[in-house]
Amino acid sequence: MTAEFQVQGQDVSVLAARFGTPLYLYDGDALRQRITDVRELLHPRLEVFYSLKANPNVSICALLHAHGAKAEVSSLTELRTARRAGVRPEDIIFLGPGKSRAELAECIGSGVHAVICESLSELKLIDEVAGELGRTAPVALRVNPSFEVKGSGLTMGGKPRQFGMDEAQLLAEPPLGKDLAHTRLMGVQVYMGTRILSGSAVVENTRQILALALRMAEHHGFELELVDIGGGLGVAYFPGEQDLDLAELAEGLNPVLDAFARAHPATRLVMELGRYLVAESGTYVARVRYTKTSLGENFAVVDGGTNHHMAAVGIGSFVKRNFPIRLLNRWDEEPTESWNVTGPLCTPNDTLGKKASLPPVREGDLVGVLRSGAYGPSASPVLFLSHGHPAEVLVLDGQAHVVREPDECEDLMRKQHLHPFAGAAG
Ligand SMILES: *Cc1c(COP(=O)(O)O)cnc(C)c1O
User: Fold this and answer.
1) What is the pLDDT of residue 317?
2) Quick check: 365 and 288 in contact, CB under 8 A?
C-alpha cells in the first residue's frame, strides 16, 4: 500500500471515486485556520473583508464569514452570494470600475457599508441612483496613488489605470460631494496589487495609504469613516518564491495600524484579502486518461485542464512556471521522471504542468495541482470546448460535501436557441 494525499483523513482516491473527476477539493480546516490566523495576528481594529473574486463559492464565503471575514464584492451575483452566506450589508463593500445602474441600486438599496467609487462620472450616477431610491449613498473614493511600492506582481500605483481616480486629479478637484445631495463621502480605498510576498512592501503600502486617506479627507472635507488599505497578500506558487511570514508582517504592520487607530477611533480599517485566504486550501484533482510519449517527452493527458485552472498555465512570465503539481494517489513516491501534464482541450496551451517532476505516471493515477483554491474555475474559460464548471467539494469536520455540482451538457445547452433557419437544409 502506498500513502495517499488526504484531506482530513480522507484518501483522495476515495473522494475522487465518490465525486468523480475533475474536481476541486477544499480543506475546510485549512480555510478556518487561515482566517483565524489572520484575525489573531493582525491588529484587532483591522477588519478582514473577503474578496469573493478569488473564489465565489457560497459555502467558502460562509465558512470564512463564520470565522470573522466580511465581504468585498464586485457584481450582483457576488453581492447576493455574500448576503446568502450570511454577511450583513454593513459588512459588505462593493467595488469595480464599471458598475451598472442595477448594481448600484442594489448596493445602495440593501445598505452596504460603502460603494467604492472609481470615477467622477460614477460618482454622479451614484448620487442620481441614491436620489431615486430616496437614500444617501455612502461612498469611498478609490484612489490610484502617485506613489509606487515594489513587491507586487501587479503594480497599481504611479501608472495610468482604469481603476480608481488619480491622486493628483482628485487633489486638483474642488471639494467633491458639495453639490451631490444624495452622497456621503466617507472613505478612501487603495489597492496596490496582487501576489505581494514581501511583508515590508505591505507595511510601506499601508503607511502611505493611511497618509493619503487623511490628505483626501482633508481636501474634500469629509469624515474618514473607512480606510481600505487593499491587501493583495500572496502565496508562493513557483520555484524560488517564499510564503509571506504572517507573524513577521504583523510585527511591522500592527504598530502602523495602531498609531492610526488610536488617532482615529471612529474610522473602520479594512484589508481586502482574496488569494491569501483561500489559495492553499484548494487542490485541483484530475485523473490521468492516457499516457504517451512524443519525440522523447512524456505526456500524461488528464481529464481536466486549463478550462478549469487557467492560472496553472503560469501566464505573466516569459517561461512557463509550474504550479506545485503532484501525483496524489502515490504521494510518497520519488519524482524521478519528467512529465507534461495536459488536459482535454484541443490547444497546446492546455498544459497544467510542463516537464513537471513526477513519479512514473500510469493511466488512472490522480494528478493534483496544489494551492489552487483561488482564481480557479471562476477565472478560467470553463466554457471552452463546452466542458463547463467542475464539481467543488468541501471537506468540513471530516465530512465531504458537494458545494457545487458540475455542469452537465444540458446546463450548457439550455440557454442556446436553435434558430429554425439555422437548421434548415440549404
Ligand atoms: C482582485 C482584488 C482583490 C483581491 O486580490 P487578492 O490578491 O486575491 O487578495 C482585492 N481588491 C481589489 C480591488 C481587487 O481588484
Assistant:
1) 57
2) yes
